[in-house]
Amino acid sequence: MIDRPEQVERLMAKLNAALPIAARVTPEVQAKLREGADGMAVPADSSVTWVSYAGDEGGIVCRLDFGDDTPSAVFASITHLRFDPRMPLAREITAYQRHRVKRLQRQPP
Fold first, then answer.
1. pLDDT at residue number 41
2. Which residues pair with 50 in a beta bridge?
3. In the predicted model, is pLDDT for residue 69 greater than 80?
4. At a CB cut-off of 8 Å and minimum separation 6, what does 22 contact?
5. Could you tell me the residue ranges of all domains in the chain?
6. What burial class does residue 77 get, using C-beta atoms within 10 Å of its C-beta: 0-12 exposed, 13-18 middle, 19+ buried?
């Protein structure tokens, strides 16, 4: 098991109550989105407007809103997003991200 169910449940409730949440996509995700958008500029700043749990395999998935520039829905794992450390949920999100990444690295190939 990768995620701690009770941690995910608490975090999901808090995230849903705080939506929309300002976030930045990692440079890797930004580059992938740019590839899919035929080289169109993809801003790093976005808003998380929806969250869902995709099970132990997928973790917490976020719908991103980049404003009027994005013609279709964009979804990313919360582990590929960065949040303002002054945000009230930042510590809990970072704890979830670190735990998940650490557990994923331990998984056999």
1. 76
2. 63
3. no
4. 45, 46, 47, 48, 83, 84, 87
5. 5-106
6. middle
